[in-house]
Batch of 2 targets.
Target 1
Amino acid sequence: MDAIILQILNGLDKGSAYALIALGLTLIFGTLGVVNFAHGALFMIGSFCAVTLSKILNLSFETIDPTRTDFLGNPAKIKTPYIESWFGPETGAAIIDWAVPLSILFSIPIMISIGFIMERGLIKHFYKRPHADQILVTFGLAIVLQEVIKYFYGANPIPTPAPDAFRGSFDFGALLGIDPNVIIYPYWRLVYFAFSAVIIGGVFAFLQFTTFGMVVRAGMADRETVGLLGINIDKRFTIMFGLAAAVAGLAGVMYAPINSPNYHMGMDFLVLSFVVVVVGGMGSLPGAVLAGFMLGILESFSSMNEIKSLFPGIDQIIIYLVAIIILLTRPRGLMGRKGVMED
Amino acid sequence: MLGLTKKDATLLLVVAVLALCAPFILNPFPEGSAMAQFNAGYPDLMQRFVIFGIFAIGFNILFGLTGYLSFGHAAFLGVGSYSAVWMFKLLSMNVIPAIMLSVIVSGLFALLIGFVSLRRSGIYFSILTLAFAQMSFNLAYSVLTPITNGETGLQLTLQDPRVLGQSVSETGGIPVTSLFGIELRSTYQMDLGAWLFQFNVGYYLCAVMLLLAFYLAIRIFRSPFGMMLRAIKSNQHRVNYTGLNPRPYTLAAFVISGMYAGLAGGLMASMDPLAGAERMQWTASGEVVLMTILGGAGTLIGPVLGAGFIKYFENIFSKINDNVLHGWFSLLPDGLENLIVGVLHPFIGKGWHLTLGILFMLVVIFLPGGLVEGGQRIARLFRRGKADQTDTTTKPAE
């Protein structure tokens, strides 16, 4: 029992990341009909937003402290971040400590503008081209974005720790009345899960309960009719692209403490999140979320030793195996709409 | 000639001349000159040109003719490499049985994957092939370690049985790959003044294979079977309505292109008897997609051009560093020189992937037909210029 709970918890954080990326992919596909292979790169850029902010906050100036010397006997240089000198040492240190959560605010405008530029500058010209062309051009864009990041940040992963308050682990067992120290779960992963639940809920609420979201949903169902009603649907779809980019970026920002950002993390996640989208059903938002969590949890279950001894290597291939089975038996995916990319 | 039309025969002849004279053509700059680093006429690189050319030709038979975009083709290359290395380990160091086995095994593998994946089309097909390739990659890394030797990669050892050959060579080392006794690594060097030309047995083996593969591709393109594949690309529903089942045709194309990939993998292992799982990763599949698109999908010569182009830049572009650039622009005033070098810096050396990505995007956006279409446009421009001179009254038919 406790092992099962533990695996479900383990699957949740990865599943949250899959669900968030797949949600963005589906938003773009459902609104604009574009298969965006650069979505993984947006996730990666989000992660690097966190890196950038923590670097900016750590910018410091050097002062020479004559009372102390370093090991060579020279007067010691002490680095003080500017933040600490402006806000005082304690507040400053706290701000630096909370760099990752702060980058949420920092990354939203960046990601939305990247999304706008991408849609207006590139994707717009590909609406009428075949899906293969869209895949290829966004694949090229993903390579370019990845190499640009590599140029500025280097090829090595950059550790970006979570705030001190979340660094420990949480004893789930004690909460559920099972023996303590059996189900231990890092706080940050809980935060990540809660965060992604909030984002997913936010996106759904936005689409469901606002006039803007209603128009977008109408556009997803029948673009032409909405256009005939005198609504500039293209403009709204551009905004949705920006929103999807922001969702991917936020997923990346919060994932930075779990997995140190490196330039190819986007590609690693891209393949899996495409599988997630296809399993959930192209164009279905609930399907993307459901499939994301389902595959994340399945992945962590299959890495249990009991299951691995039954089917060796199953943990490596479970996601692809599920995808193949689902694609062959349910062509539309789990919750795909009728008539969307069905052939 | 050989059942080809005159145009195709000329094309084949051009490719044959280019492939056989490559050691000369790719070595235009004398040794020791400033431009010598642009020479690509060394065996290792020439072999790679040709092997990836074969790989891309095969990919093009699937993608160019049927429009099915496979994102998992590297899996067949990897399977081909593994089977060739196993042949070297178990049978002998002769490359012919190894290459034959790798073509057969990857063909069977393609039959299996194609049978399942081709039930869907469009993006679903891409995802299915991607999923299969990633599965094989992950399995090769983990559970199949007894066959693939996991992360280390499959290598020859002194303890291998090699029933028809010898386990240990006379010198006590691991024997090298050979073609009926001729070592593939042996190279004839020709010194001509300042030039040094290298003729490598392995390269010529690959070149002959390329010509065979290219000839077969021409025949497929011009055959009724090829027409059928094009029909499937342009409208699969209509093919269905005429009472034909497209599945056997697409499956045949898939298997053929898988066998091409297996041939490439077998040759790769023959040149360097080593096989690693990273050859099967999806980025490797992406590379062959890049090559085909860059050269021109659906054309005969395009994939070979694209493969040569990418491999050339991978090896030559990545060698250019800041010092070389400073050398080139040393005539300019210092400030301008530093500015130009600074601007170019991200695109050269380790950053050549960036150049490749930008180039690829430009090709997809502006030249959907790839380098071949670019060449045709330039040719048309010249031809129109000539036509204008002779007859100024004709208006362009827009």
Note: Chain A touches chain B at residues 35, 122, 125, 129, 131-133, 135-137, 139-141, 143-144, 146-148, 150-151, 267, 271, 274-275, 278, 282, 312-313, 316-317, 320-321, 323-324, 327-328, 331, 341, 343 (CB under 8 Å).
Target 2
Amino acid sequence: MAGRTLSFHPDDRFHAFLRTVPDPAFGEGRLSGMPVAVKDNISTAGIETTCASRILTGYVPPFDATVVSLLKKEGAAIVGKTNMDEFGMGSTTENSAFGPTKNPRDETRVPGGSSGGSAAAVAAGLVPLALGTDTGGSIRCPAAFCGIVGLKPTYGRVSRYGLVAYANSLEQIGPMAADVPHVNLLMSVIAGYDPKDSMSLDAPYFHTPSMDVRGTRIGVPEEFFGEGVDPRVASVVWDAISLLERKGAEIVTCRMPSMAYALAAYYVTCMSEASSNLARYDGIRYGPPVDVKKPWHEAFQERRREGFGIEVRRRIMLGTFALSSGYYGKYYAKAQAARQNVRKDFQRLFTEVDVLAGPTMPTVAFRFGEKSDPLSMYLSDILTVPANLAGIPAISVPCGKVEGLPVGLQIMGRWMEDERVIDVAYAYEQGGGP
Amino acid sequence: MNVIVGLEIHCQLDTKTKLFCGCSTDYRDDEPNTHVCPVCLGLPGSLPVINRKAVEYALRVAKALHCTVPEESVFARKNYFYPDLDKGFQITQYDRPLAVSGYLDIEGDEGEKRVRITRVHMEEDPGRLVHKGGMDRPRYSLVDYNRAGIPLIEIVTEPDLRSPKEARRFLNKLRATLEYLGVFDSEKEGSLRVDANVSLEGSERVEIKNITSYKGVEKALTFEVTRQKNALRRGQKIVRETRHFVEARGVTTSARSKEMEQDYRYFPEPDLPPVRVAGWVDGIVLPELPDARRQRFMAQYGCSLIHARTLTGDLRLADFYEKVAAGTDPVLAATWVADTLLGELNYRDMPVAAVPSDTFAELVALVQEKSVTDRNAVEVLRILLDQIKEKGSCEGPRACVERLGLRIIGTGAREGDDPLASAAREAIAENPRAVEDYRAGRKEALNFLVGQVMKKTRGCAKPSDVNAVLIRLLSGEE
């Protein structure tokens, strides 16, 4: 039935939302009447979309992202836009221009990022379903920190049309929810071919999760338990892997040497792409008008200086540098070669095993301000970026706690085998996990 | 001092929709910013989708220019800030273009010449700035994105051209080829832009940017060659630089060095997969191109080489000629189209498309059946063209001839009603002195009498007829 609306007045103590829709419409379909939170870098027609950046304040997209159209087609109610690190650049949601989101599990801690608002909205029980985006772990990290489930689909399986670009070759929109069946349901709605996204794959997603993991070979790369990984987190994750073994999976330890330069390859790539993607915010089309009395090149520089946060400016500058003539070969081209090696490593491993497992994050959720130096923040992405570099599916599912804080088990699968990572996560979830 | 010229030519591909979205390319007469969508406005979250037709058009060009099409070509981003550039980058092709290593044969300064084509690639046009309050010190500028995303191809030649005139000839041949391919409309605004690299052998190369007309290329190069020669003569060195062509003044001026230092930070466009279209090339059937049509005009219509070259050098002119030649003597038609009509059109700055071919064919037929003299036929043509220019249409040539009484006066069958003979008799009677002179053997006196007869018949008689009649009368045969 058309014309029905929901009443949505959440107690948003954690600042999960940047804005909510008090009476969103909904229709018939598989998600009829279900409230869905949408990360603020996904375009929503008629609802301001800022990417948590001052530079996009007041920007109301004239069109819906393909995923939003698909949600509406299945009857979902779009209840609001969630907080995030500005343009997705961060792992804590502290980089939002509009203030950080708190972790519902511990208010003194960050929810992770960049999809921290979506994770917090689900963890706080404000919505059953949320959309996040994952460029280098931005769905899985907050899912792990907030104790929910988040899937980064195979690159191309979910349309990026309407996703405000940060790093086009790496990012995917994906589902976030409290449990695997809900993630599976949301995935079945948003996946599928979209002629508007030239990188889109013609691979619809219709799947009923199975908890049978007998005979599944699970690879555990040593590098996922290396330096920097909190031993307590490692121990909880090993317990989870052992549980899967007891359910009939075969555990194989393996090595992934390309991990040594995955992080560098990731950061060079995403910053380079970002420096280009964010060039369009020059004060002419978005945000309040620039000072027209100044020459244009001064006015636009001033607008960008004031409109972007420090982390965004840092990444634009580093990306600009990495692409400059004389440095391109040293940085961007090298990063692509390293990326190729990561892909090859995965290909090799996936001839021996069906999925790879390890921790999602090296630690539990940080305290606010803990990662003040950018490099240590970047380092915390080491376990999530390989999946983005290779375009393969990866999920984070809660697998226990360290000092009362959630830990995420990460399952990575072969390209286009999103169904299998869902199944392994489901098997764990149903098998007496926490 | 040898002149060395290479060209980079940007041509608009005449597709119905833009390169990466479904917006219409036909924005003539429409308000600014009405042919736009999230994609060509570069709104956050929008993604490009390649227009297959544009790729096919570009491949037609590549094939006609005898290029190699690699298995895979790649779109790249060219990053720079400018208000007309909605995304902050232009999607173009960089190190892996659509097509490479071709050639185009032209009529060079020293006969037939092969100009090598380095590459052909595709790219999108940015929007357009409109400066309000004068070009030099505009009060403000407005931006119109109707052009943003219009498909272009860039064709780059090797430095094979040896004079400004040769460059012009190359461009004319290229334009004709593109029009024959049905991928280009030279009459559309902004359909062609040329950058030219020019040097004198042994010294630095100068790039002239943004020449927007065919004539402009020759003018800009001529100016630049002279400037460089003069500089060398004065013992100065040529600096490697970028210069702008100021069309209104016919000069090139040095661009600020800042613009030269632009670093475009090219990298592969992550939103578009590599283009794999080498397999399409074999399926493309090329239409008859200018060289083949020129040969056919000579064989089929008996045109001279020069006429055939002129006629086939422009698609519309060639089509026009074939329509006229269908109902008249093709050789006569060739002269009338290539020499007479083209001259009159150029004089009036009118396109051949303005002239109905059947009207012109009727005029040629009148000449052919000797109903009007060549001179009067030209007179009629001028009147008709002026009518077209003034009100868009014209009367029929036959009607015009009758209205003005320009029908040819022949030598009649019977003596009595021969208007030419009576005019001649009148002239003889009125000019006894000339008659005397003639009879005394001064042959030039006859010319005077011929002139008198022509005047009396208002040009409607053929001079050879007048001559014959006068000689007959003066020799006393009557």
Note: Chain B touches chain A at residues 38, 41-50, 77, 79, 81, 83, 86-89, 140, 143, 263, 265-267, 270-273 (CB under 8 Å).
